[in-house]
Structures are given as structure tokens and as C-alpha cells.
What we know:
Blueprint: H1 2-44, E1 67-73, H2 85-93, E2 95-100, H3 107-116, H4 120-123, H5 143-149, E3 154-158, H6 160-165, E4 173-176, H7 182-198, E5 203-208, H8 210-218, H9 223-242, E6 248-253, H10 269-272, E7 273-279, E8 286-292, H11 296-304, H12 325-349, H13 357-371, H14 375-426, H15 428-452, H16 464-492, H17 498-527, H18 538-587
Parallel strand pairs: 1-5, 1-6, 2-8, 3-4, 3-5
Antiparallel strand pairs: 2-7, 6-7
Helix pairs in contact: 1-17, 1-18, 7-9, 8-9, 12-13, 12-14, 13-14, 14-17, 15-16, 15-17, 16-17, 16-18, 17-18
Amino acid sequence: MIGQRRGGFNRFIRILAVLGSVLLLAASAGGAYLWLLHTQASLEGYQPPLRVQPKATGKATRPLAPQVVFVLIDGLREDAVAGMPTLSLLQRQAAAARVLVGRPSYSQPTWTTLVTGAWPELNGSSLLNAPDDAIPPILADTIFAVARRAGLTTALAGAPWWQKMIPEEVLDSRFYANGFTADDDRLSAEAGLRFLNNFAPNLTFIYFGSLDEAGHEAGATSAAYREVAAQIDDHLRDIVAALDLRHTVLIVTSDHGQVDQGGHGGGEREVMYTPLVAAGDLVIPGDYGTINETDIAPTIAAILGAPVPRLSQGVARFEMLRTDLATRTQVELETALQRRELANLYLPSIGHGALSETAEGDVEVALSSMEVQNVESAYSLARIAVERIDREMAQVRQQRILRERGLRLPLALLVVAVPLVLLILRGGRRGLWLFVAAAVTQLAYHGLYLHRVGLYSFSSIAEIDTTVMMTAENVALASLAGAAIVLWCLIREHEDSVLSIIQTSLGYSLLVVYLLACQAAAVYWLNGFRITWYVPDLTATFWQLSAIVQALVVAGLGLVLPIVLLLAGLVYQGGRALRRRLRPATRS
């Protein structure tokens, strides 16, 4: 009687354990789904901590050239320049540099960086490209706005996204194509030439978008990509022919590159470094190494004698330009004033306070040196002031990130440690096999992923829905490998209890979820639950999203896997029984 009671009690406990496992899987699926929604919403709705811009100084400097023509070739890789005769000739004969792109390397945030001089963390752009009907205007100060404040004329020719991003009031002339095709690029080139020939704006911006489309469709190493690059080079040849480079500076660059198979958004070298070529009598030929994408806007402003864009985080690249010390000093002083005001707005917005007295003093000493006509000293001190302010902003930012990581660390360790301790203490031999099955499932998933995609990066995401479906397929296929190990373990141990089979199956699925939770916990420690006041490491964010989607699928499959294993067990037992019945007949 006592044995029956104990058996009944143990069975009741096992039933409760099964129900608890089912609830835990359901909770995992629900939690993963909510986390996925929150992460996506934080990416799409990110707002910089700085909600106001520094005040415009309104101070123009002496122009170095009356005209700048800025050509942006979307998706142009460094190695593609070799197949563009006009651009490669300019690269050899004029000033050339590699441009470090900001993250994320999608078009809208990088376009905004190019025309504001501010990284995506501060420039207010969508981190992911917003849908066509929801593209926000650029609210940050742009090269078009500062040119207008300096009394200069502006023009833009390009794709329809620019119409939504650049307010009309800062443009004297504009042309917007219907899309991103080769014909649209031809129309944009023709419009840009009309602007240059008819009224010669001080700032002309011409955008070509078909190369990026070709990269997405056929890959950045394809013949189609090279063919479109050659077509754009023909447009560039016509633009160069229309310019008088004695009075004009031509700047050609890209917003980002592309990975070999096509795509961008991540941090791959092919994506993060783009070519820059600057030509004109004002420009000193040579190779200038690597510059930041944020340096282009303040350099254009300095050439035109326009004020520094108010959110600029870059510097004017005077080493490329023929100019006198007095003009350089004037621009550097304006940059120091702009950066001081930016820092005094940014630092309180992330909970720090104002700039240090040392940084404030550097700016004041630079201004004092200029007042006594010590131009060389003023120039050096202004550069030191800008560098110190930038360094102080970066240090305060990093200190807050590390402080927040310290607060998140205990919870992340708890998520990793508690299930592991329970597995060691209570899992036994079967628990070890289930852990092996879960690990094999993860290895199989990554093998499938590398075979089909080969890139752990936002650059691999063409469409969210397609990526989610592919992830679900890979998880389902990888789960077959893990389920086979679980079934082998059950057969090897001659398990015939339906309750034990269900419990074992659920335990396997929970262990797969646990391994994914370890991955998500590590990224939670690094980046937090969602993107808040800064743009984190987006490679880690990609891993986080991948783990969340996998956990969602695994939890869903885990609820039906017991039925599959029970059916497989029945088939196995039936097969064994059939072999036993056929064995005597075979002997006779």
C-alpha cells in the first residue's frame, strides 16, 4: 500500500513537472515574441538623447571656392572604382581617401551623416530604413541649411527619398526621380547638368542609386554591378566635363559599400569603407588615408565659407585643401565653439553635467589668442579644444555604458547559472545526453545558416519576413538532428513510459531554449533589453534577434515534439515486433 502511494505521488509529481515544462515553454515563446517586438520597435523608433540642437552661430567664414559639386554613388565599394575610368583617373590625379562609414550602414542613416556631419546616434535618422510612406525629414542642421544661412544657392537631384528627407525651403532648385533605376540616374544626371549650366549653384548635390539596387539584386561582385558602375561613371564623365575645376571642388563618395552577395547594414569591411575623391585647383592631390564620414559635411561647409553644421561631430579636412592659416584658424575656432555647445547639451542629456573646466578653458584660451592676433597659437589651441571635447564626450558615454552593464550583469549571470546548476544537480545521465542533443541542434542550425547565408550581420537581411521564415526552416531542420539523439537515448534506455518520453522531449526543448537564452543574456548584458539612448554594437544586436527568433520557434516546436517522438517510438516498437515475427519464417 505504501509503495502504491509513493508510486502515485511520484507520478503526480512527474505530471506536475510535465505541466510546468509546458508552461515554461509557452512562457519562453511568449517572452521571446514580446522581446522581439520591443527590440524591433526600439530599432525603428530610436530617438537620440539630445532632443535640441546647439544654437546656430550664423558666422560664415571666408569661402575657399565659390562652388562645390557633391556626387553620391549609393552602394559603391572601394574595389569597384577600378572599373570606372573617370573616377579611377580622378582618384590617381586628385585627392583620395577611404571613408569610415557609421553604423548601422543602411542608406537613410548614412545619407543623414553625410549631409549633417553627425553619426546616426545623434543625427535623428531612422536606424533602419523607414518605409517609403514614413520617411522622416532630416531635422538636424544640414550642409544645405548652412549654405542658405550663408546666403548661398543650393540644388539637389536624386531619388524620391531625398524629397522627404531634405526640406524644400533649403533648396533653390531640385529634381526628384521616380526611383532607383538606371533611367532614374540618367534623369538625375541630366537635371544636375541643367543646374550647373543654367545658374551654377554654390552647392550642387547629385545622387545615383541604381548601383545599390544592382548590388542587392545580383551581388556586388556581379557583372551587372560592374555594368551599372560603368554607366554611372559615364554620367560622372559628363559632369566633370561641365565643370571649371579652377573654381569648383568636385567631391565623389558613397554612403556605404556592399558585401559580395549583396546587402549592407552591418560592419563588414566591404561595407564600412568607401572611396572618396576630391578634385579641383583648391585640392592638394595625394592619398589621405582614412577619414570619417562625419568629416565630409564640415569640409564642404569650410570650402563654401558656410557655418559649421550644428550637430557636426567631424572636422574640416584642411590637409587636402590649399588655404591660408587665417582661414583655417577661423574655421577651427567656429568648430570649437560649435563642439563646446554640442557637448554642453549632450553631456547633461546622458546624465553627466557640463564640460570640464579644462575643456571650457581650452576654447577660451584659443579665442583669446585670436584676439591678440596670435593666429598660429589660436589654430593649435582650437584643434586641441575640439579633440579634448570629443574625447571627453566619448569617455562619458563609455562610462555610462559600462555602469549600465554592471547593473545588468547579475541578472544575465542568473539566467545562465541557475539552469546550469539544476542540470548538474538533477539532470543525471539522461540530462547529459539531452544537453548534448541541444548542443548538436545549435551546431546544426549554425551549419545550415552558414551554408545558406554565411554572414552573421544585418547585411544579410534583405527582408525581415524572409529572414524569419528562413530561421524557422533552419531551426526545424536542426531540431531533427537533436530529436534523433533524444529518440536514440530513449530507445537505448528501453524507455516505455509515455510520461517519461513526454518529459524527456520537453526537457530537450527547454535545454535548446536555455542555450539560446545564454546567447541572449550575453547580449542583454552588453546592450540591454532594448535600444535606448545610444546605438549599441549592432552585430551583437543581430545575434540577439537571431536567438530570440530561434527561441520562439524552438518553444513552439517543443510543444509538438513529444507527439512526434511518441509516434516514432511506436513505429520503432512496431518494426521490432515485425522483425521478431518474421525471424522464424526466415530460418525455415
